[in-house]
Amino acid sequence: MSTTARRPRSDGLRNRAALLVAADAVFAADGTGASLSAVAARAGVAIGTLYKHFPTRRNVVGALLADRHDALFATRPDGLADWVRTVASHAATYRGLAEFLASDLAAGGGPDAAGDRLAADCARMAERTDRLVAEARAAGSLAEDVPVEDVVTLMNAAAWVREQEGSVRADRLITAGLAGMRPGAREWNSGDGRTPTRREPRR
């Protein structure tokens, strides 16, 4: 028996490419929660053909973002602030994508990173975020007690704002958020989860 891997059939490759083009158009119009039946219909194939190539919605999103993620990882961010802005912009590519990515980013890639392109890419984003957070702490631009999770939350919030209200407001949020994470900027926060109280002015 031959052990040579069977090449994908040309019609299968065409269908896969058509599905990704269709998914891009449908998600751009209706967000990542759009009907997969609409994607299949736009591609001119049966819904079963879509599921043959992409068993889950995650697989569609992961394949659709593969090239964008490759480009994202090829960038050399100029520090943490630049990376936060870059990821926030990327996560606003489609409506709903920020929410889609948020859980994987928070989990460092999710439980299925080995066999899931989307989860694997989120794991790479999380690793780069960890490294840039460590560098920012070492450079004195990020307080030592700011957890990585706070930075990821800022990314996700900025992506949502960019998606809903545009890049200007998102950039303002990032600027204000990172300013609040600098050493000394959070001394008023007790850190115990309680609502902080305003400091009384010195007399």
Outline type: elongated
Average pLDDT value?
A: 84
In total, the number of strands is 0
Measured by DSSP, the beta-strand proportion falls in: under 5%
Major sheet summary line: none
Helix content: 55-70%
Would you tell me the structural class of the helices and strands? mainly alpha
Rg on CA atoms, Å: 21 Å
Series of H and E elements: HHHHHHHHH
Q: Give the helix tally.
A: 9
Q: Report the span from N to C terminus.
A: 88 Å
Low-confidence stretches: 109-114, 193-203
Helix and strand arrangement:
Blueprint: H1 10-30, H2 36-43, H3 47-53, H4 57-74, H5 80-91, H6 97-106, H7 117-139, H8 148-165, H9 167-179
Helix pairs in contact: 1-2, 1-4, 4-7, 5-7, 5-8, 5-9, 6-7, 6-8, 8-9
Characterization of this structure:
It holds the Pfam family TetR_N. Residues 13-72 form the HTH tetR-type domain. Keywords: DNA-binding, Transcription, Transcription regulation. Residues 183-203 are annotated as: Disordered. It comes from Pseudonocardia endophytica. The chain has 203 residues and is mostly helical. It has two domains: 11-55, Arc Repressor Mutant, subunit A; 58-179. Helices cover 64% and strands 0% of the residues. The protein contains nine helices and no strands. It has helices at residues 10-30, 36-43, 47-53, 57-74, 80-91, 97-106, 117-139, 148-165, 167-179. Helix 1 packs across helix 2 (36-43) and helix 5 crosses helix 8. Mean pLDDT is 84; it is low at 109-114 and 193-203.
Index terms:
203 residues; mainly alpha; Arc Repressor Mutant, subunit A; 2 domains; elongated; disordered C terminus
